Amino acid sequence: MSQTTVRTWDEFMEGVWRQNPVFVMVLGLCPALAVTVSAVNALSMGLATTFVLTCSCVLVSLLRKLIPKEVRIATYIVIIATFVTVVDYLIQAVSLALYDALGAFIQLIVVNCIILGRAEAHASKNPPFKAMVNALGMSLGFTIGLFALGAVREILGAGKLFGVALFGANFQPWVVMVLPPGGFFVLGMWLLVFAAVARRKQRKLAEVAQNA
Amino acid sequence: MHESAWQIFISAFLANNFVLAMFLGLCPFIGVSGKLETAAPMGAATTFVMLVASLCAYGLNLLLTSFNLEFLRLIAYIVIIASAVQLVEMVLKKYSPALFRALGIYLPLITTNCAVLGVALFQTAREYDFVQSVTFAVGAGAGFTLALVLMASVRERLTLSDVPSVAQGTALSLMLAGILSLAFMGFAGLGG
What we know:
The structure holds 2 protein chains of 2 kinds. Chain A is built from 8 helices and 2 strands, in the order αααααααββα. Chain A is mainly α. Chain A has one domain (3-163, 174-211). A two-stranded antiparallel sheet of chain A has the order 1-2. In chain A, a hairpin with a 2-residue loop joins strand 1 (160-161) and strand 2 (164-165). In chain A, helix 3 packs parallel to helix 6. By secondary structure, chain B is mostly helical. Chain B has one domain (5-179). Chain B starts with a helix and ends in an 8-residue tail after the last helix. The mean pLDDT of chain B is 83.
């Protein structure tokens, strides 16, 4: 791989793994917990956010030299709100069932801190292509996070994945997992898992450093 | 809509608590709930913004509907909320600089608090009239403050106890929130 592709790949992977918005930065929690009662909902929310995040970041990046510094946040929000309105009407046209399932949370993408955070921290300082790659990585990371939550909650709370029953008829669904408390519990568990993995990695690194 | 104002208030305050049952406003809920003395003012500030946003959103919605401009609703709401937050920020900075510093970055972030936009969007979706909208906003704000204060009280005690080090921080807060949310489910059905 040449130098530039490596850098682009790095830029992309940053959002997916090292700075994963859900598990590492713990941003955008509201949609992450509210819509993840099933894997399908989680994926659709992820896709909608991907669209908004990528489009807004590219537009912000294109306009970055035109937007006066004093009103930048307001400008970003208006840009984001425009794309959210587009997505809102799009989902309504494509699938009314999905629109009802996600409810107000489609419109609430506007106030997803990940999007404003990316626009301010990255897209306003980088050229469009770089901003797009970074935004795509972040979106993928967010979608993976949502899916991890949604899948666990659907498997435990309904005994299904993508609506397909996984266990026999004797399975007693763990209903609390699809109710609000379950969202908090599952995300808490995931964060514990991530903390434990990070700690093990650190210990290994320390051992290697000691032996060397 | 035939819900009484009292029902709406109780529902937004307890049964459908914005934070613990509807997952709105989680960022400040996790971020500012470390200390009781910042949690309560933060709740009050958010409640005030909610009230202003709800009033403006009500008027704005009438205006937009009369011009058939419903597709501008979201953009108009967010601009209104941003201005309301700016107002609160200026007032706080003038009358209580210490509190202004304590709330720090979370104050401007009320703009991106989904609970505030949530109030505006839900009252529109449920077609509340003026009185209903106001009670809904006050109930939601009170519920947000209640959740924030409860969480802060628990976390203040938690700092003194011996927790497994791997669970410290956000993971533990989320578990706590889960338990609180479980408790709040006991209010389900209250207020209809």
